[in-house]
Design goal:
There is one protein chain. The chain is mainly beta. It has a single domain, classed as Mannose-Binding Protein A, Chain A. Helix content is about 10%, strand content about 30%. The chain contains three helices and eleven strands; from the N terminus they run E-E-H-E-E-E-E-H-H-E-E-E-E-E. The longest helix is centred in the middle third of the chain and has 7 residues. The chain is globular and about 40 Å long. The chain starts with a strand and ends with a strand.
């Protein structure tokens, strides 16, 4: 699958067989392990809207599922959840996530071309693009699967 980033850029994503094979609820349902990437996602992203600078530390104090070590995902990590064939939300059918708004979520990736911009992912359209760091956006926390 190819996810369009912006201005002719693309991210190549290898699709898993199905959402049921790819995603597994863990931590008593508080988190989801992505068997394709090994990452662990919050099962329910938080409702907060924050500036990009605040998003960078937003996940640091999370203890979702009784676990710490949460962080904001990179552009590639968050875009890896997108199913470009779906919209509103742009997630694979049968995914186990709850309360994923068809909104824009920050990534930790700043723009290499303009210091006032950072990358985000729209879960309405699946679009991956840059936006002004001064804007309020949602945050979806992630952690590595091999950390305690």
């Amino acid at each position: 699958m190819i996810v369009k980033l912006a201005a002719g850029l693309a991210l190549f994503v290898v699709a898993a067989a199905s959402a049921a094979d790819r995603f597994v609820l863990i931590m008593e349902g508080a988190a989801v392990k992505d068997n394709h990437t090994g990452l662990i996602w919050e099962q329910t992203p938080g409702p907060d809207h924050v500036f990009w600078i605040d998003a960078l530390t937003h996940c640091d104090t999370r203890a979702t599922g009784g676990r710490t070590g949460w962080r904001i995902p990179t552009k590639e990590e968050l875009a890896g959840l997108v199913d470009a064939s779906r919209h509103d939300p742009a997630l694979p059918g049968g995914h186990p996530f709850s309360n994923v708004k068809s909104a824009i979520y920050w990534t930790s990736t700043p723009s290499a071309k303009d210091p006032v911009l950072a990358w985000h992912v729209s879960f309405f359209s699946g679009e991956v693009a840059t936006d002004g760091k001064h804007l309020n956006r949602r945050v979806w926390c992630v952690r590595r699967g091999d950390t305690p």
